[in-house]
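Morning run. Coffee first, then this:
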Amino acid sequence: MAGLVSNLIQTLRGQTDLFNEVVALSAHKKEHIIKNDVEKLREVVKQENIIVPKALSLDKEREKIMANIAIVLNKKQEDLTLSLLSELTQGQPEHAEFVAVVDDFKLALEAMKTANDHNKALIEDALDFVEFNMNIIHSSLDAAPAGYGSLEDGHEPGSFIDTRS
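And here it is:
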């Protein structure tokens, strides 16, 4: 099982590094959202899209390793968590390293979630502002401008053009 735990440690380190990259990119994304710099925002999203396949691959690898550990421990995979595994590795040589990696992993995951939540809120606010402006524009177009309309004599108010033929 020591080999499986070592593989899990390496996988969690890789995931943690990717999560930290996403957090750093999220800070840039936040700046570009606030500045309304769509082009630089696209660049950040492109960089994130490079990370996503790597993260998905590592996530699948982590799930495989956890499934193998569950088999070795004769436990159901869905019952095996990182916290439980941390308890089960007590007394093992890799325990301290595993606990440290799991803590880093959880911190990076929480930081990524927080950054994504902040950026989501900023984007929603920006969309609300755009919708508000569109409503103002739409309502101003719907209302007939003051001084325009037709008079019974065929003249438009404020116009010198005789519309009678």
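Helices lie at 2-35, 38-73, 82-88, 95-142. Good start to the day.
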